């Protein structure tokens, strides 16, 4: 069987989270050398497994950490073919209830983190593109960057910013052979989603968890929400040479949720 990422080097931020782990696992199966960058080896799933990836401790809000991570990849591999900016946080509040500290933290992780890792990855990715390979940056937006769920004001704002940044990066670095896209998930079964169900924000509200989960499934035309593997499948294609003409796009993956004229309020 042909492995479409054979010989490529990838770095995934949030690589020990729900979606990040799925991406790392898929990249490894496709033959890539993978660096899983996160705050801890356990990540949000509180699990540690020797999956064959290289762990890098990375706080995406810290410039020094971003520089150190790319220095390690450069020393080990001499280039970087794929960067996935999957690290992110969600705060379930309206702007009135959001503190300035929470607002700034949301932008620091979701936007500044994408900026910093991309900024310091670019020289390594130019080296990849100049050698004739397809260099690919994949950011994480959200369907909440197009429309809004209630009680997620800061999150929605950060994802809209990532969408705009993705387009700008694609325009700036396409001539260098570097493709830039964003994946915009809907509801995906991750620790973040379970926190949404259990929280006091728009997902919780004191309701029964199983009823809330079923209500979320029912509002989708496909009557289910997604899995991290669903996201990893699209990331894998965008990372590969098969997607050589795909750049500057916002790829919505939400089971048809945002295609509806009106959505049920959860």
From TrEMBL:
Entry-linked InterPro entries: NAD(P)-bd_dom_sf, Sc_DH/Rdtase_CS, SDR_DHRS6-like, SDR_fam
Keyword Ribosomal protein (UniProt): no
The EC number(s) this enzyme carries: 1.1.1.163
An example molecular function term from Gene Ontology annotations: cyclopentanol dehydrogenase activity
Domain of life: Bacteria
Key words, A-Z: Oxidoreductase
SUPFAM superfamilies for the chain: NAD(P)-binding Rossmann-fold domains
Keyword Manganese: no
Pfam families named in the record: adh_short_C2 (PF13561)
Gene3D superfamilies on file: NAD(P)-binding Rossmann-like Domain
PANTHER family, alphabetized: DIHYDROANTICAPSIN 7-DEHYDROGENASE
Similarity-based family: Belongs to the short-chain dehydrogenases/reductases (SDR) family.
Protein name: Cyclopentanol dehydrogenase
Gene source species: Roseovarius albus
Phylogenetic placement of the source organism: Bacteria, Pseudomonadati, Pseudomonadota, Alphaproteobacteria, Rhodobacterales
